[in-house]
Amino acid sequence: LARLPNGGFVAMWHASPEVEGERSQHIRVSTSDHNGKSWSNSFKLKVPRRRAQWNPVVHIDSSGRVYVFYSESEGDCIKPTKPPQWPPGGSIKMTYTEDLKITEDSKWSTPKTIYSLDEDKTIPKMVSNNLVVLDDGKTWALPIWREHAGMATYAWPTRLAHCRVRNNRHGQKWTNTAEHSAGLLVSEDYGETWTARGYLEPAPYPDDDSSGGGGWSVGQKTTDLMDGSLFQSADAKTLSMYFKTTAGAIYGSNSADDGKTWSEPSSIGIDAPESKTLVQRLYFDGDQKGPLLMAYNAHKRSTITNAVGKEVRLPIKCITNMLLAISPDDGETWVKVGAVRGTTTAPGLRFHSPSVVQSGCKLFVAYSKLYARGYQFSENDKDLGIRLVHISM
């Protein structure tokens, strides 16, 4: 979700007719000229596409140019299903338009690959959360992560040996040593050229004591770091990222050298399922820095604390309880300030993937309400899809 220079909104997401990762998966666009109260019919982002597109990130620069960053699947690591599926990610690409009003006929630049699948040991790359312009005004920092082809745990033909990764349940040997990691793509010339910074490797679970308190150990349970959300400290001395994990908590890491090196990621002490967290700086009276805002799902992977403080089990594959919190001290402490969606639950039901736009003292929060594949929605669920709420601060 982004606010356009003309005062309207644009929303973008990836969509697929049948299953995620099929060749026809593409980016869809919808716009609103009415403060988010009504929206255009969605349409395809009109850029050349060969395979599945993933996770569009919209950025609008100071001139009003609208950029879109996304991943596009490449290579032949394909899950042999009907239809065939590519694993998440690929090469990260960038396109832009200078049209003042975005329509189905808007002219977009030829997509430019800014981080190829083939770089860093041939591993799919992903984007998901907002690009941040640092305080110097010219440095752009885009959170990314490198995600090994997890679908390669299937029985691949010999010619696809390069798709195989460790933990292969068929006992196949590694032939691709690429490891999951997170980091940034950084441009110091307003998006003309890009450099990868940071390789944050999987981090230990917070309750795994196999290291005896001495750091890493062989066989220690770890979580990948995904969907990084980046923010800069109020004094501009530190960058921080919060991550989606499989550990039932939000993880964080800090950098004092503009993303070149990072502290060891660890839990920030806030429960969350395996769902995207968004953190961004609020501003008041133009460019006066305010507190940080965080949108996240407030529960563990399979349990939630109910109204009387008791931890109860959630229905299978349910993600719910999307909250907003603010931090006046750059993430040292967080105070819950409101709920985007309450604790509605059902097997496979998911309220997740928040995106937030601030407009003065109002917040516009977009999120998805969907069911996991294979789960039946009830007759009462008439509002599935992408939802938008307005919140006054």
Amino- and carboxy-terminal Cα gap: 19 Å
Radius of gyration: 21 Å
Helix-and-strand structural type:
mainly beta
The biggest beta sheet reads: 5 strands, antiparallel
Encode the helix/strand succession as letters.
Answer: EEEEEEEEHEEEEEEEEEEEEEEEEEEEE
Q: Runs with pLDDT <50, length 5+?
A: 151-159, 166-175, 210-218
Shape: globular
Indicate the proportion of strand residues. 35-45%
Total count of helical runs of at least 4 residues: 1
Q: Give me the count of strands.
A: 28
Describe the structure.
With 393 residues, the protein is mainly β. 1% of the residues lie in helices and 41% in strands. The strands form 8 sheets. Strands 9, 10, 11, 12 and 13 form a 5-stranded antiparallel sheet that branches. The chain has a 4-stranded antiparallel sheet with strand order 1-2-3-4, with no helix packed on it. A hairpin with a 4-residue loop joins β17 (239-244) and β18 (249-255). The longest helix is centred in the N-terminal third of the chain and has 4 residues, at 119-122. Residues 151-159, 166-175 and 210-218 have low confidence and may be disordered.
